[in-house]
UniProtKB/TrEMBL annotation:
Superkingdom per UniProt: Bacteria
Gene3D superfamilies: 3.30.420.40
Lineage of producing organism: Bacteria, Bacillati, Bacillota, Bacilli, Lactobacillales
Classification via PANTHER family: TRNA N6-ADENOSINE THREONYLCARBAMOYLTRANSFERASE, TRNA THREONYLCARBAMOYLADENOSINE BIOSYNTHESIS PROTEIN TSAB
Domain Gcp-like residues, every copy: 23-212
GO function term, MF aspect, one: peptidase activity
A GO-annotated cellular component: cytosol
GO biological process: proteolysis; tRNA threonylcarbamoyladenosine modification
Keyword check for Protease: yes
Protein name: Glycoprotease family protein
Alphabetical keyword list: Hydrolase, Protease
Length: 227
């Protein structure tokens, strides 16, 4: 099976092309760029490097969220367009799982910085989810894992190192970037998603919707997005 995987859910852009679980080409760009401009040229470059055409692909794997609202919309729109045009499988995987090193076991908590000391967090024991992913304050994350004998925080851990050291001195941490190869391998045996129903997994409402609901909670009127 020939797979194209990509993740644009954060500042970093990660791409990988695999055949039969072997990575053939990959790239990661960890600078602030507009993914809508860089994603397709990066895909074209990797495909051309392998002398492949889009018709060679059997599956698209995409990071479905959580993460940047704009980044997720770009990734999902691109993935759905490619899968529909090529008539191939589309599989969505958690952006948080993209941060989890495949060779590392134990209790892992992947983090994405959601600003104001909030995070998107996952909770995995040997790559199996033990609690639902959620948008939480970092204090809530620490509370959820306070009784763990050993826990490793991965992903965007930089802003939270001091709190980890103060509250959980027994914990370890490792800064990791999104890894599209990991994403593809985690998804290898997963059933394809419904192309029609596939949407980003934001985990948190956009700020405009939250403000609207706050001001209209008593009216009972539905929130309607203008198209």
């Amino acid at each position: 099976m020939k797979v194209l995987a990509f993740d644009t859910s954060s500042k970093a852009l990660s791409l990988a092309i695999l055949e039969d679980k072997q990575v053939l080409a990959e790239t990661t760009i960890n600078i602030k760029k507009n993914h809508s401009i860089t994603l397709m040229p990066a895909i074209d470059f990797l495909m051309a490097s392998l002398d492949w055409t889009p018709k060679d692909l059997d599956r698209i794997v995409v990071a479905e969220g959580p993460g940047s609202y704009t980044g997720l919309r770009i990734a999902v729109a691109t993935a759905k367009t490619l899968a529909h045009t090529l008539n191939i499988e589309l599989v969505g995987m958690s952006s948080l799982l993209s941060l989890v090193p495949r060779q590392q076991g134990g209790f892992l908590v992947p983090l994405m910085d959601a600003r104001r000391n909030n995070v998107y967090a996952g909770f995995y024991e040997n790559a199996k989810p033990v609690m639902p992913e959620a948008h939480l304050s970092f204090a809530e994350v620490l509370e959820k894992v306070t009784d763990a004998e050993q826990v490793t925080f991965v992903g965007e851990v930089g802003p939270f190192v001091e709190q980890i050291q103060e509250q959980l001195p027994q914990a370890s941490y490792q800064e990791t970037l999104p890894n599209a190869e990991n994403l593809a391998l985690w998804a290898w045996d997963k059933k394809a998603d419904s192309l029609h129903d596939f949407v980003p997994n934001y985990l948190k409402r956009v700020e405009a919707e939250e403000n609207w609901l706050k001001n209209h909670s008593e009216s009972g009127a539905p929130y309607i997005k203008r198209l």
